[in-house]
Amino acid sequence: MSGTGLAMAGKNPWGGSGKKGDGESSSGDGSEGGGSDGPRNPWLPGGGSGDGKRRSASIEDIFKNRGPEGPNRGGPGGPNFQMPTRPGGGSWLPIIIVAIVLVGLLFSSMHFIQPGERGVVKTLGSYSRTVDAGLKWTAPWPIETIDIEDVEGVRAVNIPASGDSAKLILTGDQNLVDLSYIVRWRINDLRDFKFQLAEPIDTVGEVAEAAMRATVAEKTLDATFTGTGRAEIQQAVRERMQETLDSYRAGIQIIGVEIAKADPPSEVVDAFRDVSVAEQNADAARNLARGYAQQTIAGAEGEAEAFDKVYEQYRLAPEVTRQRLYYETMERVLGQTDKTIVEAEGVTPYLPLPEIRRRATPPAPITAQAQPNEEGQ
């Protein structure tokens, strides 16, 4: 054990003998001394001197294999990458750039306009011409540009817009009504539509509101709730809107105006409903009275017409008509009594005709109810 320990103690793990001699010394920290067989660190990269010894790495050794100057320089991703060349030795890059520009110019000059649409061509921002449906060609952008619009489709503007508050309008009898309506319009002159107004769609809504307020101010509250009154308001609003937009040269045609809702303000809706119910009841009572009056008048007129016919016959034969009237009257009066009186000589003044008639008829089967007794005098 002791010999083995001495042998190991005599050998340096860093490559030296661990002894000092000939003025040379070695240490266990891996640094080189003055001799040629000094200590070597096995964990450090080898030196570049070719003497077989290993030394510590320097900054140049760490970074020389990194960065653009590293071992991949000159490869496909490096700074010296070159595009393929043409057969003549020239570069493909100019041809690719020219092809991209030509394709862009082609697509900016070709336009497909659908049926029902028209396009406005602008040259450097100014109006140039109007084109119809089909495949159309223009100068490339930015020399000429085109704006395509649907000129046959009907568009709609809702007033008030969805989610807005109630639109209260003052009527001619100083009442407020909450109106919701729809304005339908289309484009009839694309040039004026694109160049005369800055915001044509917003202008349609503003003109519609102004026309509606002016028209409702001429009507009463009841007129705005009835069908006839609504039709008159809608027609008047359409005409006023068209006249105003024509004065603006807006290029817009108003197709129609439709009132979707006409209600009283929400604050007084309950009281308004009570008044409406009372008015309906009053109308029902008036209609009933008119019906009774018409029935009575018709009966009176019928009787008067019958009397006029009898009077005409009376004028032709007074005696005969007088006797006929007498007989008819007596028949109508005496037909409802069961007594008959005959004034003649040798005849009983009173004939119990009902009793004789009753005796002539067969007796009815006996029932639980008693038969009434006839009074005779």
Brief digest:
The protein has 377 residues and is α+β, with helices and mostly antiparallel strands. The protein is built from ten helices and eleven strands. The protein is rod-shaped, with a radius of gyration of 60 Å.
Description:
The structure is a single chain. This protein is α+β, with helices and mostly antiparallel strands. The strands form 4 sheets. Strands 6, 7, 8 and 9 form a 4-stranded antiparallel β-sheet that branches. Strand 10 and strand 11 form a beta hairpin. Helix 5 packs across helix 7. It is rod-shaped.
Morphology call: rod-shaped
Characterize the largest beta sheet: strand count, sense, and whether it forms a barrel. 4 strands, antiparallel
Whole-Å distance between the termini? 178 Å
Radius of gyration: 60 Å
Total of helices? 10
What's the multimeric state? single chain
SSE arrangement, N to C: HHHEEEEEEEEHHHHEHHEEH
Structural classification: alpha+beta
Query: Which band does the percent of strand residues land in?
Result: 15-25%
Unreliable runs? 1-10, 16-36, 71-78
Q: Would you count the extended β strands for me? A: 11
Query: Quick check: average pLDDT?
Result: 76
Question: Could you estimate the helical fraction of the residues in percent?
Answer: 40-55%
